[in-house]
Amino acid sequence: MKSNLSNPAKPLSRTESLACIPRQSETIHWQELDNGDILFTYPIPLSRFFTSLHQKFSKNQAELPTKKLQLDGMGSFVWKLIDGTRTVKDIIRIFAQDYNVTSQEAETAVAAFLKSLGQRGFIALYEPGE
């Protein structure tokens, strides 16, 4: 069952969440910068009012305004681990080893980061086997 973090079908238990596999959204444009950081470019959702203003005054009416978000080294490290095969638990374990933090610290940091990515629509969680 797909569980989009911004609108979960049902709340998942901690055990179920750790067993899920995060997958990157195919609709999000991102690139790796020379320094290894990840840069996202995504359209800004506009209300009907601002959409009409944009269409009226913009030179390129078809192109919606975009926003950029650059991840730091830790965020970029986690993003690169989201490959559609690793579970949340796998990502936490690798993060804890690479950054020399406890598993609890890694779980707190990675879970908060994945939640933020889910709320932005950059990832979705899937149960194993989906």
How would you portray this structure in words?
There is one protein chain. This protein is of the alpha+beta class and 130 residues long. The chain has one domain (2-126): Alpha-Beta Complex (Outer Surface Protein A, domain 3). Helices cover 42% and strands 19% of the residues. The chain has helices at 14-19, 48-57, 73-81, 88-99, 103-119, and strands at 2-3, 21-24, 29-32, 38-43, 66-70, 123-126. Strands 1-6-2 form a three-stranded antiparallel β-sheet. A three-stranded antiparallel β-sheet has the order 3-4-5, covered by helices on one side. Residues 1-7 have low confidence and may be disordered.
Please tag this protein with its features.
PqqD_sf, alpha+beta, 130 residues, three-stranded antiparallel sheet, disordered N terminus, PQQD
Number of alpha- plus pi-helical segments: 5
- Give the integer mean of the pLDDT values: 87
The CATH class turns out to be Alpha Beta
Strand content: 15-25%
- What's the overall geometry? elongated
What is the helical fraction, as a range of percent? 40-55%
Query: What's the main sheet like?
Result: 3 strands, antiparallel
Elements, N to C (H/E): EHEEEHEHHHE
Taken together, the total number of domains comes to: 1
CATH topology: Outer Surface Protein A, domain 3
By CATH, the architecture is named Alpha-Beta Complex
- Classify the secondary structure makeup into a structural class: alpha+beta
